[in-house]
Amino acid sequence: MNEKELYFKIYETKEQLGNLITEHWNMYSNMGTWYFWFNVAAILLPLIILFFVLDKKRFFEVCFYGYSVHILWLYVDGYLTSNNYLNHPHSVSYLLPQAFTVTAVLFPVTFMLLYQYCIKNGKNFYIYSIIGSFIFAFGFGGISAAVELLRMHKGMNLVYLFLIDIVIVFIALGMTNLFKKIKHNKT
User: Angle at CA 162, nearest 5°, toward 151 and 177?
Assistant: First the structure.
């Protein structure tokens, strides 16, 4: 098979996959299912809470941290999903990335608020984030797996999710601290 034939085979396979994902969503994750409404609530409730609880004095710092967490988890989840290590069979829409609820809202907002709490109260963020990652991976991840919002394959398990959570949270912290340092050195 030459390069052009292989490209069109990949293209056709992606088209078929997109059609299957749309069909699955229409049959099993649509607005008439509890999965849909759970995903909607998991997007709206954290954002509403964030709106009222976010410290306006540290708005950009906390939001930068959350954005970093979001982007990192988005890329990691994209890799894990595309290589079938994990899957989110019931998403809020077939038009959005599969883990949109978790990677774009729930996980980042949770850790934004944890970050804000720790810096505001002088708490050790490393310890709190390890505890938060444990609760998120084994609590939310475990429940998600039990109710079929998350499926893991190829040896992926909750321990790996816990470790990934920690790495993402710490890298995002490092990025935030780097940008804070750059900002302070410029002023």
Answer: 130
